[in-house]
Amino acid sequence: DKEVRAIFLRLFAQLFQGYRSCLQLIRIHAEPVIHFHKAAFLGQRGLIENDFLTKVLNGMAFAGFVSERGPPFRVCDLFDELVAFEVERIKAEEGNPPKMIKHVRELAEQLFKNENPNPHIAFQKVPRPTEGSHLRVHILPFPRINECRVQELLQEGLARSQGAPPATRGDKKCVVPAGPPVGMFI
């Protein structure tokens, strides 16, 4: 699963290499508008006649990609690092399948680590039901809810949340690396 995702991550990093140099941030409105210069991107890469890439750039998914990944100051991730810093590595691996496979496996491992930051925590599996368990009828009476106790728990929770410092997320925003200009990929 992770290796397939790593292959697609690498493919899209290659496909959109240098896209940040064709972004323009327009700050006229209250919310900044991000514009992508498709003609410049295709022209500088020598892909004006490429029908597939033209359709990808005109699609709604790419418009969402630009609006999500266009801001210059946001949380960076593995894709940003690939697009900005791994240009030469990806080029060098094009004719060397063993190196490419090694890189895909490294990316897959990084994806796994991103999703499982604490691998030492064991997840408990739900045991399979025993044979014949479906024949036994287990009807437990539904417990009555004590309204006073529910109110007490709500008040305790509110008191704790008001006194606690605001929760902060571990992801830090940073300036997104621009990477090399588009003209480098002709």
Automatic annotation (TrEMBL):
* Molecular-function annotations in GO: guanyl-nucleotide exchange factor activity
Q: SMART domains of this UniProt entry?
A: dDENN
Q: GO terms for biological process?
A: regulation of Rab protein signal transduction
Highest taxon, organism lineage: Eukaryota
Residue intervals of the UDENN domain:
1-76
Per the record, GO CC terms? cytoplasmic vesicle
Question: What is this protein's record name?
Answer: MTMRD protein
Q: Which organism is it from?
A: Scytalopus superciliaris
